[in-house]
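Quick board copy: two proteins, each given as sequence then tokens.
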Amino acid sequence: MPVQHHFRRVLIANRGEIAVRINRACRALGIETIQIHSDADRDSLAVRLADHTVCVGPAPSAQSYLKADFILSAAKTMKADAIHPGYGFLSENESFAALCEDEGIVFIGPSSRVIGLMGDKATARRMAEEAGVPTTPGSPGTVTDAEHARQIADLIGYPVMLKASAGGGGRGMRIVEHPDELVSQFQSAAREAKSAFGNDAIYVERYLRKIRHIEIQILSDGDNVLHLGERDCSIQRRNQKLLEESPSPVLDDQVRQQIGDAAVRLCRHVGYVGAGTIECILDQESGDFFFMEMNTRIQVEHPVTEMVTGIDIVKEQIRIARGERLSISQDDIRLSGHAIECRINAEDPDADFMPHPGMITSARFPGGPGVRVDTHVFSGYRIPPYYDSLIAKLIVHGADRAEAIARMRCALSELHLDGIKTTTDFHLQMLQSDAFTQGQVHTRYVEEFLRDQK
């Protein structure tokens, strides 16, 4: 039996909309919240909603939200029973999770051992192969240097993808079309990986041109491992997701079952406990799917799954961390209708999506049946320039995909955030494109769409 924990206070080691989301889930469970913040976030909505607050440093993330020792000290001082890391920052940091374990503070996520296994992409590929989950042809582990990468590329054929083993968010990734590009691209990927993650290890895999990005939401209490259906995250720009939907418009029931079963099998193999996501690619030419990576945390796009399943994933994540068993089985999970999420970023699409921090002079959010807004911004809020540009997630639910698209168009037209540039109009244009409405997109479609708009 898992160890039972009583959570009186949870420290939220994050900011922005996910901090607000976690705060609300905790309070719905009768748990007090401790919100950490930087100097720049002193007046944020997450701080206003929390029961207790602690400043952990100046604005730069490296001096505040990434200071593991400061955060752990705050948790002990404030007598927190657990820490919820959200996504980004320290959410997939093996060392931070281990520190929490050593201090007897529950890390709301998987164990440090599992984070270490699945956080390294090369090791995660090996785990997938051991579990019988298909992976794209590539190097059996990380490569030692550019010459080793060339040997692998010659073996599996071009084009290839170079990927940072410790990477995420599209950083440390390069597509190599020809052998004479490999050395320079390898060096570039390794430098970026070293700068972003402190680890320049690279592995090589075959690059598939026309793919869909499909991910499976997992909940596991250690014995009961469930998948909550898939999300299609193929609308991306430079490997950054912009729009997600569930279910995928291209999966049939047979492939959906195969991917779900594979995700559950992998989680059982590594002993995964908590909420997580198995990310796959679907080759649209062959119809085959391949494991890509695992995110050992809550995802930005988790509301899409919540809308079609009716399951509060963050609350379940907290309950699992308390040592509770899941109260549902796989047979209880049914996908109802269709959901779409648009990420509203403070960026200027007309200026190559340049970040656009500043004061929101007035804010008006949409509403009505099937419309949900997850945000931390409000009228008079000043967006700081130090963090990710995501300022809101607009999520809609419809009886089917056509209704969800129509509802999202209406919701986007009602959304007004004056004083800054946002991606709202970009999403409206995207939702009106024939390729999207017909479900005929791929992970490079946005680049094609933007070229056509010029």
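And the next:
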Amino acid sequence: MGYNTPMNIRTRFAPSPTGFLHVGGIRTALFAFLVARQAGGKFVLRFEDTDKKREVPGSAEHLISSLKAIGIEYDEGPDIGGPFAPYIQSQRLDHYKQWAQKLLDAGRAYADPYTPEQIQAFREQAQASKQAFLYRNYRPENPPAWDGTQPLRFKAEPKNYTYHDEVMGDVTTNPEVVDDIILIKSDGYPTYNFAHIIDDAEMQITHVIRGQEFISSMPNYLALYEALGIKQPIFAHMPHIMNEQGNKKLGKRDGAKDVLDYIRDGYLPETMMSFIATMGWNDGTEQEVFTKQELIDKFSLARVQRSGARFDEKRLLWMNGHFIRELSPDELYDRSEFFWSESAKKAPEPYKKQVLMLAQDRLKTLKDLPALTSYFFEEPARDDTLIAGNKQLKKLSENDISNLLGQVKTSFEALSEWTPETIQNTLNELLEKTGEKPGVLFSLIRIVTTWAPFSPQLNDTLALLGKQKTLRRLNLV
């Protein structure tokens, strides 16, 4: 069956368990997932763990948690198995040796007899001659039989290659960059360059979607496909994700955080999926926010831009607020479970749901919940900087504040019904009585009843706080 058969599409995400997963890696996984889901195909997770020196304990479990946290489900993988198990390279060593033997038998691989010191001397020799170092220029004439203790190298036959990249277009490579790369190291583990080609072939991967840093290695990969008699998959290399300024690749210093840290910071999985998908891709319309199903329906590798995509933290925050507002009251309550303040956790569920309904429009992340709602559950600490730092309120004297609050207390005490409507009517009457602007009067009332930098609609907030609690807090100033 050809790769164009829709049900036959198989994509993969093949990270090395060497640390956390940031947005660049998760975007590669997401795009591969979307290509497979759209075609009704399979998405495979595989761990490329042949560089044992760089492996980080617990990283494999962390990578799995990261994918699951934002809703990227795989059909086959290390923890769930599948028809092409195992999905961990270190458990597939026999597979690589069998393919290596094919190259040896065909005269396309040989044992590397040189010591690291000798190879370094060759490098220095090339440097002195102002030439690029290519191992094939120092290829031994009579290499020893390979016994597994020496590195096994590919015997390259340099030439031009042309391939099509779904993102980058048609690419032609020169013979100068094709070299005798290492296939299997002296420790018995294959290199990534060799192992991923074998795994993709055996696992029937149709689309290889990965970062653009692999483009420079493509000539050697194409030479290997040819020598092994393996049909090339469809290639798609993703451009880098750039920092906020757009002038360099996003790194840890620029905010390339662990994906799970975003979830812990109160970003929704839906937000992360939509935000990451739209870094470097759009559907050709003005739409900025996509649900998971919309992404599956609309995604296309042909619309991934070739240039780097800028990581925009403000856009991420805006998008998260959008998705929070889209949640039903029950969904929001369920998602908020771990973000309440300690005092709120002890409060009755119906009351917490009322608070959430008020706060929902103002929440940008779920982590904002305590700052936005703690005064509903406990007496707030007085913070006079909120008045002193307010452009309009700082102009008021203590006497002005006392007089204004005195009128507010009198009007509120006279209310027989304490509802959002009656409170709003009273607030409007107070504007006329005092001659103050809403920015002064309402801000003052809001601050002294919550001592929070921001809060939901004032009349709704006071209604939920209750008459007695509101009057008590007004009396404390």
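Board note added afterward: The domain at 385-475 is CATH 1.10.10.350 (Arc Repressor Mutant, subunit A).
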